[in-house]
UniProtKB/TrEMBL annotation:
Taxonomy, superkingdom: Eukaryota
PANTHER family: ANKYRIN REPEAT AND SOCS BOX PROTEIN 2, MYOTROPHIN
Pfam assignment, any one: Ank_2
Protein name in UniProt: Nephrocystin 3-like N-terminal domain-containing protein
ANK repeat start and end residues: 515-547, 548-581, 582-615, 617-650, 651-675, 685-709, 720-744
Amino acid sequence: MRNRSHDIDRAVTGTCEWLLKHEKYRSWAACDRGLLWIKGKPGSGKSTLLKYALDNGAVPKAGNTTVVLSFFFHDRGHELERTPLGLYRSLLHQLLSQMPNALPDLVDTFEKNRKEIGQPGEGWHWHREQLQRFFELSLPNVLKARSIWLFVDALDECGERNAVDLVKWFESLLRNPFRICFTCRHYPILALDGAFEICLENENRDDISTYVQDQLSASHIRSSTIPALITARAEGVFMWARLVVRQVLDLDRVGKRLGTIETAIRSTPPDLDELYHKLIENMEPYSLNLIRWICFSTRPLTTNELQWAMAVDPDGIYKSLDECQPSEDFITDDKINTRIKALSHGLAEIVPSSDAQIVQFIHQSVKDFVEKGPSVLDSSATLADTVIGMAHHRLSKTCIRYLAIKEIDRSTSYECRDFPFLLYATTSWVTHAKHGDEKNVPQNDLLECFAWPSNALVDLWVQVYRNLNKYSRNCPPEKTSLVHVASKHQMVGLLSAILQKADEIGIKIDIKDQRGRTPLSYAAENGHRAVKLLLVTGKVTIDSKDQDRRTPLSYAAEAGHEAVVKQLLATGKADVDSKDNYGQTPLSWAAKNGHAAIVKLLLATDKADLDSKDNRYGQTPLSWAAENGHAAVVKLLLATDKADVDSKDKRGQTPLSWAARNGHAAVVKLLLATGKADVNSKDKGGRTPLSWAAENGHETIVKLLLATGKADVDLKDERWGQTPLSWAAEHGHETIVKLLLATGKADVNSKDKWGRTPLSWARRNDVLQLLLDAGKAGVDSKHNNGQTPLS
């Protein structure tokens, strides 16, 4: 995640020095809290400026009293380099390295998850909101001893909505002594109250002049009027100056006169996008192919990958690596740097990554231009979506052609050193084909690429995938067919072509893969477009069961595809109450995931068992909905007047117990309103709804339960012998302690199995004081080990 800062060009000597002397910067740095926005046009040098600042004393040295955090967003990089999740992960990692004791909650959660679930990235993942909260919780600990300076580059590269949300978050952090500096384009429009702002193109003319002089230092042009002309026409955009300087040097290298060079500069479009258009529209097809790969690949390609991606053209004639490598289309290692620069007309560069060299555009604005004006890649297409779709279709075909190379079919091992492009081709052809299909690009020729109806190449793809990345969630099972792939990924164009030809030549499409899943099963799980096509054939089994005994209806209900559920029910052949190996019915799955519209459809059939329990936990649809806080679903189930409101699962928990435990106040209200929910129902640990709500700090729910007048305030659980008051005191929930004491029924001196009272458990001073003020707490009461609460 820190690679981006290393990619950024180091400032030319004599540039960027003005920032640390700028009045706005000095005022911001002098405050104990504040927001500084360095704004500028694309390519104006924001990233280089921020990197210079961090490397050259942006933060006054004051011993061990500051924490400096930084993050450089990078839209052309990997997912964590362009998302708020990556920002939070990086900031917390930096914080831990500088102050290891600042994040006890994060460390505890990590260790707990690792022991109970498994390694991160396998059994569980960090979530954005979770990490944001950990960062906020760390601030009181950090700010006791140090000040915090946060620098964030290229905020616009995380997307407009994310950028706006992050600025709001930055502003919320300023409740604390906190300095935040970020760079961003002039858009998205950010409403900032009281922030310091520096507009880069108003400040960087001298820097551009210095840069141009430096780049032309070895040429006689330096002493001419050319440098001043470039500086003036750049209008604050370093990237424009960089590209024009390259053109000037090329013209000088071939002996062009100064007058000719000056004319070329004056004829160069002043707008950066117009300049990109001019450079790309004059490219040969091979160069345009390079631009496609850099812009539309699913991740940045390494130089080794790109060599083969460029050589194995979908319209090419090569069928083996031995034929490819000696060809003119293959860029050799010794020529890769110069060829990439020449083919891209200076718009691409090679930069070091963690373990390889990757190829990328010289600036984010190049990618933005190609994506918003892709017709420059194909003058025959007028719609941007069509051009993008055709680009993805072409890349997909290249991946498939690489998989069909003779050496891969003959190999028994698939080492990356032998087949550099194999991992990308294997894991990305489907993504590119899907994007092409979404843009309505005809996919018929993919059948030819796969030599369909033969399944040999698909079988090879599955074999390679399972060898390279067996545990990926996207790894296809054995016996996968092309119709499975098209159905799963909703590639309607490809599926239509398959179904039409299958009908013509009598090929069976209702086939199962190794997991027992049919194309309809996958289509139902992932959306309705492919389902409709499959149902129209009349040749699919509506209620087919996979190895987990799950039907298409089961998958559609779980995923929340209302249109699919309607289509399946309309056939009259779908078993509404079919149980899978987990004992879950379609209604159970829909209720668990909160799909109210689907629950309504299933209930309307009058064939769904409302109290059906799953095998593992023994939970009913109502129990699942209550546990997960799906009030709309709970309301629907209760409205039938057939659902058992007080049904207990294998842990002895009722729907009310789950809702109270997890803090779902709206669900608690609905359940209590029936008059059928046992407020004092005990689970297998002897815990009541009040006990759970008190422990977890759910104040509103504690009020609701107490308001019934039926909740036993002093009931001890069977496992630990703790009362609701004991649980609330242990976890520091001051308001709940007040509520329980106000009933006059809570025993302040109730002892648990360790002999500990609520006073003994109280860790926070405010809770401790409440219990003492109650006037009954025994300060001399002894635990089983002889200690007193205050000892």
